[in-house]
């Protein structure tokens, strides 16, 4: 009986990590593409005090796409997770700027901008968990 419980939880863990990995891949793939399709939106959220704002938009888009692509490689996945986590932290000033200057973004409710900061912490946890090798998940080793 104990072995079947273990295999049930192991299978659930594998499914959960697979779903989390797919979410991270889609999040950064779509986001990375969006940097090139709608750079004016991203330029608007970059704090004006930062230099090379348009370049920062394009560079962050490139790194989002590189990180998402690297998730497909088992050898690179862990490093992709570290990179995407670092990138998520690097864009924190843009999220804080949006929250502090909510009047510049009237289409987005201020509460949603606050929740966006909370979601960023959750996203970090998902990234690091989904890209961490696990002994129970042999498909990703």
From TrEMBL:
Domain of life per record: Bacteria
Keyword Membrane annotated: yes
Membrane-spanning parts: 20-38, 50-72, 79-99, 111-131
UniProt entry keywords in alphabetical sequence: Membrane, Transmembrane, Transmembrane helix
PANTHER family for the chain: DOXX FAMILY MEMBRANE PROTEIN, MEMBRANE PROTEIN-RELATED
Protein's UniProt name: DoxX family membrane protein
Source organism (scientific name): Noviherbaspirillum galbum
